[in-house]
Amino acid sequence: MNRREWIAGASAGAAGLLLPTGCAEAGQADPPPSVPQPRRPGSVVTPPASPDALTPEQFGARGDGVTDDSAAFAALAARVNERGGGEVAFRRTTYRVGRQGGYERRTRYAFEPAPLLEFAGCTRPLTIRGNGAIIRCAPGLRYGTFHRNNGEPFFHDMPHRGWDQLATPYRWMVKVEGCTGPVEISDLELDGNLAAHLLGGGHGDTGHQIPATGIGLYDNRGGEVLRRIHTHHHALDGLLIDGPDWDGSGGPERLIEDVRSEFNGRQGCSVTGGGGYAFRRCIFSHTGRAGISSAPGAGVDIEAEAGKRVGGLLFRDCLFADNVGQGMVADSGPSKGARFVGCTFVGTTNWSVWPNKPNIAFQGCTFVGPVVRCFGDSERPELATRFERCSFRDDPRLSPTGQVYGGENPDRPIADLPDNPGVRFEGCDFRLTDRAVLPWTTNAVTFADCTMSQRSRARSYPRGTFLGRNRIDGNAVLTGAVVRGELLLNGRLVARGRVT
Description:
By secondary structure, this protein is mainly beta. It is elongated and about 80 Å long. Helix content is about 5%, strand content about 35%. The strands form four sheets. It has a 26-stranded mixed β-sheet that branches. A nine-stranded mixed β-sheet has the order 20-23-26-29-32-34-36-38-39, with no helix packed on it.
């Protein structure tokens, strides 16, 4: 079984949320959380377009939500590419796009999509001002594998690697590739209209691994800024970032701000190459909840591919909730270094996070549902996963669906870490008021200045090395733990040394 299948198998199948670090008594909900509220497309007054700005209407677009504007979009992008960059300005209206066939074929797809906004090789600044426009995929287009001769769905065993049966409504609504000038995209809603697709068989290792993405950023060496984007209901990813190989050095501004990516088929956001990206006030939620679900099915997947490295990522005040897969998963390729500050993770049918890569830190974050596969390193513990001032909860009232995942261990530990040396919890609060129990850990995990409580009467095993002042309330077995500070267990002081 490969990684995608394993992760997908962990699953049991704009939300009123939740969160953070409350000190409520058992049985009371935590206070209302600070859920990120990304600014919506078109909600901010921006400078007027320059006189030289291009519009879709100049190339024949109607923008009436009915006429197919695909050809106009492709012609607009071609003109920008000829100029080496420039400014594009949309009206605050709905553009309908997506067409299969009727133009020069570029691949062996059975039902090849028309190109849309594909920008490449721009050496001058590329600025796309959405002004609140909606780009919506036309209904009734095929996605998946289909018989070429009659257009009927082609269902088959997986994995499937052939290309001759593929169909997709579009590869990307917006693609920017190989640009050396700065890129800025703002104030757009990209609606993949997933429920209106004709669904065929799968492709790839599992699910439907066929291009159909809202925004794709590929190998751009200039700055990249996305602001106030709502990208949703795409059959693959809402946002895919495949930047230049990350060597750890500084670079131009790479900012993803006020982006809502939800109800997509595979990922809210895939990061497969590059680094130095800062995500602020973003939402990556409900992946796999709109009719198509392909592994990993995460809110965000940090997965370096094709020999590239990924690193230097910062997520601040972001929400990852109710994804078929994990809220965030990092488990593949040479990925290293991500920091999450003030973020919220809610696992309804899967783990809240799966951070199995070096140097990932969570600071002031809230987790509703269990964490698993934290990166451990006994020789270089500074690379192990770190949790600082984080809150861990299992209260169904903090979930947008009223459901909180319990994990694969029947005891339902809030952190399932049987072999994860060097993982550190510092200043964290575990307040479990439903069925979850305290972490399943060994003394290779450090707890410093933490408070822990569980309502469940089931036995828990929060064994660790305890530093500073810690308190545990509940049915906890500490045999093998090492106490080097002050530890209160159900009101009684535990002697220093190894617990027997």
